[in-house]
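Appendix B. Raw example, untouched.
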Amino acid sequence: MNINFKKSFFLIFISFLFLGCNEKNEPIKTPPLNQSTIIEKENVDLNKTKVKDLNQVEEKTKEALSYPPKTIQRSSSIATKSTIKNFDFNIIKKGFKDDNNTLLIVGGIQGDEPGGFMAASLIVTHYKITKGSVWVVPNLNFYSIIKRSRGPYGDMNRKFANLSKDDPEYETIQRIKNYINHDNVKLIVNLHDGSGYYRPKYIDKEHSPYKWGQCSIIDQEILKDHKYSNLFEISNSVVSHVNKSLIKKEHIYHLHNTRTSEGDKEMEKTLTYYAINKGKAAFGNEASKNLPTHQRTYYHLLALEKYMDTMGIEYERQFNLNDQVIKNILDNDIEISFYDNKIKLPLSKIRNIINYFPVKNDGSIDFVPSNPLMTIVKKNNEYSIYYGNRRLSRLKADYIDYEVENKDIDIKVDSVKRKVSFGSVITVKENFNIMPIDNYRVNVIGYTNKTKKETNITIHHSDMMKKFSIDKDGLIYRIEFYSKEKFAGMILVKFAG
């Protein structure tokens, strides 16, 4: 062996030692592939995985294909028994296709349990799955959610054994059963908010075996011949994980085995027991109704992260996991856009009523929500924006024809000229000035002057009438644009507070 070869071998060996670990002496992880989400209304055929050469060697492996991006698009609807199909649930697939180790998360089976469906929605909007596959149904019983009811047509979580085809929720039950039975789905978590605090032994009326809050639920200890067969062990690991991060000691989690097959007739009708009988590992996770929604959501997310860890699913969370951060996200990180983004409304502090809101003459509102728990319910000439079971605002319709064309508008913002698209929200420190535009009429809602002209005029916050702001703080105002008698679009100005 010559000297040059020995030197080369030594350098390669040393390089391997340094590259094989990072500064924390942990294995270096391969950077995640691009990942996104897809929102589906029906089952779709999964594409076959592609094959590619790696490092020009003959061995070929499958390339993980991520779900393509897609937004939720909805239309306003009245909310009655005859229109229940207009409030069908969404399934949002995150991570990678053709993964036969998929976690199915279900929220909103009962509409009066916001901790569960809010947690599921945050998995959709604020988590990125970098390895594995997660399917999320955040709004299973969407109709009951907007009605703020356990179930307008009975408890949906008691409809998985026998159900008449005449039941208004029959098709919803069949759809979710299809997802449960999908070959790729290996573990299911059904999220609930329960009363009080479950305790294995009676302490008092709020802390007893008859309460359901703060527990991990299994129907039985073992599921034979399954990848996740030891339900008891998995549930115990979730309980231990949650209990490391309690807000208060009273919030301690316990394992609750309902022993359903031993004669619990009510639990035999549930989603999780249906899944168990189809050979799927299934768990219930309960947060206490005694807690505010953001704290319930916090405990659900702790549990869900442990289930993902158990399954080898890797993720990136876009926030620090504590209850106050969650409260801020739930309250403030929400918006909705209308009519192909001609209008956008931030919803965090929106007024209870928005008057003279431009609605197409046919009475329909097409919109894209930032969160799958949002919808719009029509009643007469009012359109209520719902976020989960909270009604955020009522839009009082001003019916009008819409202009199809979109234009960029020249606006001076703090003396700097900008081109601004319809549907934009622009931040203003001192003032703004809208440049004249041919064949367009401009209406700054909340501003008036003797000339009745609202272009080429410098407008300050002090010039605006606060009662016309769209937000309760009096900082955000509408600029509306009209082409002849048609509504063309809206831009919002937000004054720095």
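End of appendix B.
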